[in-house]
Predict the structure.
Amino acid sequence: MTDKMINITIDEEPIQVPAGTTVLKAAEKLGIHIPRLCYHPNLSLEGACRVCVVQVEGFNHFLTACGQEVWEGMKVQTNSPQIRQARRDIVELLLDNHPMDCQTCDRDGQCELQRQAYRLGIRERLFEGKRKQFPTDESSQSVVRTPEKCILCGRCVRVCSEVQGVNNLSQHGRGFETVVGPAGLGPMDESACIQCGQCINVCPTAAFLEKDHTERVWEALALPRGIKHVVVQPAPSIRAAIGECFGLPIGTPATGKLVTALRRLGFDAVFDTNFGADLTIIEEANEFLRRMGGSGPLPLLTSCSPGWVNFLEKFYPEMIPNTSSCKSPMSMLSTLLKTYYAEKKGLKPEEIYVVAIMPCVAKKYEASRPEHAAADGTPYTDAVLTTRELAWMIKSYGIDFVNLPDGEFDRPLGISSGAADIFGATGGVMEAALRTAAVKLTGQELGPLVFEDVRGVTGLKEATLTINGTEVNIAVSNGLINAKTILEKVKRGEKQYHLIEIMACPGGCVAGGGQPYPPADMDVLDPQLPLLRAQALYKIDSDKQLRRSHENPAIDHLYQEFLGEPNGEKAHHLLHTHYHARMPRGIR
Amino acid sequence: MTTDNWTEIKAAAEAALPPEVVAFIDKNKDIAHSESQLIATLHMVQAVSGYLSKEQMHAVAQLAQVPLAKVHGVATFYHYFRLHPRGKHMINVCLGTACYVKGADKVSQRLMSDLGIQFGETTKDGLFSLESTRCLGCCGLAPVVMVDDQIHGPVAPGDVSTILDKYTKKDKAPKAPPVQG
C-alpha cells in the first residue's frame, strides 16, 4: 500500500482513501456496513460467499467489495435495488441448501447466516432444491463437526492454518459435493486436530460446535444429595467474559455474580480454578528454578494450555523434555478435590462429581485423558462446560444473572492471589511465574509485580529480565502459528531462552474456543476482544490484597497439611503429568 | 531417550512410496514454492500405482511437509486423481446423446445391479471398474459399452451378463500347471 490517496464516491458520498484500500474498508469509513459472510478482517481473503457484492459504474456485473481495491474516480453503489436483490438471492441459495432447523440449533440467535437472512429481508423461501447430506462427526472429545450446516465460507480452514498453523481442515471434492473436514474426511479424533476450538469461534453457523456436556451436568445436579457431592470450579477467564452473555459490556468482571449463579444452579460447593493456578505457579516456579540451577533442559515451556499440549505431542514431540510436567490448574484442582478434599469431607472419590467451567474446548479432551484419572480409571474431572454452555444453563434455569448479589468461593480451595486471575490473559502465566520466581531468586519479599513486557495481545513477545544479576530470556506466544516461530528459534539455537509461555488461542484463554461469541458488531478475532477481557482480569488482580501465588496462605497450608514439599514425591505424584508423541504427526 | 518420532515416520513414508517419487520430493524440497509441486508429485504416484492410497498420500504429506488435509483436498478436487484401485477391466458406458436415446440408462442400471457397484466404483473382487463416458464416436452402434479397448454395441440390458461373463471366465480359467523341472 502506498501513501497515494484515491478519490472515490460510495453511495454518492465522496471519500479519499489510501491506494490499496478495498471497497469494503472504504465503505466502513463512511459508516456503511456491507454485508459479508466469508470475509474476516483477520484472515486472508476468500471471496467465496459473494454476499458483499456492490455495483460499480461502468461494469455490467457486480464486484465483490471484500477484495476489490479502489481506483481513482470509482463510483460505487452499495444499496441499489439490483444489489439488494442479488444479495438476497445469494443468501436464499445458501439457505436452500441448509437444514433450516433454527429453533433447535445451538446457534439460534447467534448465527451469522440467520442474521444476514434477516437483515437482507428474506421472509419466504423461493427456492427448493437438492439438499446436501453428510454425517455429523462426534468422534472428537471436544469439537463436533456438522457439515450439513456448513456454507463453505472457509473461515475455519483459514483460522486453522493462518492463526493456528495446524492446517487440519480443507475443502474436499468439488461443486455440490464440496465438504470441509480433516484429511480424507476421517474422524476428527484421528486427525491432526489439536482441539483448540477456534473453528467453532469463527464459524458463522453451527457447522462446528463444542461437544455438549450440559446434559451430564444437569443429570449430576438432579441426583439426590448423599449420592453425589457436585462441586464446580470456574477458570480465571470465565469471570472476565460471562457477563457478555447477559448484556454486560465486554470486559466487565463478574466473579461474585458467577459464584452466586453456580450456587443457584445447585452446586454443593463452588471452588476456584484460581487456586489450582496458584498451585501451578508454586510447582512450575520450583521446576523452573531447579532447571535454572542445572537440572533439566531449558527453556522451560509452560503446560497449562491443553490445545498447546496437543500441538506439542502432534507437531513438536522433540520438545516434550522441555515442557513443564505440571498439570494444568484445572487438573491440579480436580485431583485435589478427589483426594485431599474427599479425605477431609469423609467422602469416597467416586462420591464427588467435579465440573470445570472453562474458556476452552480442549479441556474436555484433557479431562478425558488417562493421565488425569485416578488409578482405578475414574477421571478427576467429570465434566467440562464452556463459558457458552454455562451461560446457556444459567439462562435456561431462569437466573437473572445481571441482578445477582455477589457471592464468595468456598474456602480454602477457593482462595487465590491476583497472580492466578491473570492466567487467562496471554502473558499472564509468565507474569505470575515471574512474580514468584523474582522473589525466590532475590530472596526479597517485595519483588516486581507488574511485567509490562509480557502484557498485551501481540502474538509473540520477548524480553530479557535481569533478576538478581542473572539474565533471564523469556518469550510469550499466543496463536500456535507464533508458537511455531518461537520453537523454531529455540531449535536453531539463536538465543538461550529460559522460560516460554505458550497458549494455543490468539489472545490467550480469554479468547479461547469456548468463550462467548462476540456481539454482532464485533468480529471474533478482533484483538479488542481479548484485550478488554484481559483488562477485567488485570483489574481483579490489582484490586486484590494477595498478588503473588506463594503469598496465598491456603496454598501454604495445603503443602504443610497434605502435599509436603513443592516438587516433592507426593506433589509430583498428584500434580504432575507426562506427555508422549501422538499420531498423526502434524505438518509444521 | 528421544521423544521425537520423526525418524520412524520418515522411514515409513519412504517405504510407502516408489523410490522415484521419494527422489522427486527430495529434489524439490528446497526450491521456491516447493508446495506447488504437490500435483506433479501425486501424478507420479498415480502413474506408478494406478491410484492414490491413503498411506501414499500420508507419505507424500510427511516427506514434502504439505498438510495432509491439503493433499486430500487436491486429490479429491481433480477428477484425474483416483483414490481407489482400478479394477482389472475398465467398463465405460457411453452416455452421449445417441447412446442415451437408445437406452444407455437401462444398460447402466443393469451393469450396476449385476456388478453391485455405482459409477466410479470397483467391484470387491477387483475385476471391474465402472465409469461413464461421453461420445465415443460409434453412434451407429448405440448404445455402446466399452470394456478395456473393446467396443460392444448395440447393447441391450439382456446382453450385459453375456459380456461380463466373457471377462469373468477369461480371468477365472484355470491356469496351466507349472512346468515341472
User: Anything to note?
Assistant: Residues 160-172 of chain B form the longest helix (13 residues). Helices of chain B lie at 6-16, 19-28, 38-49, 54-64, 68-77, 97-101, 104-115, 160-172. The mean pLDDT of chain B is 91. Chain B touches chain A at residues 2-6, 9, 54, 57-58, 61-62, 65-73, 76-77 (CB under 8 Å).
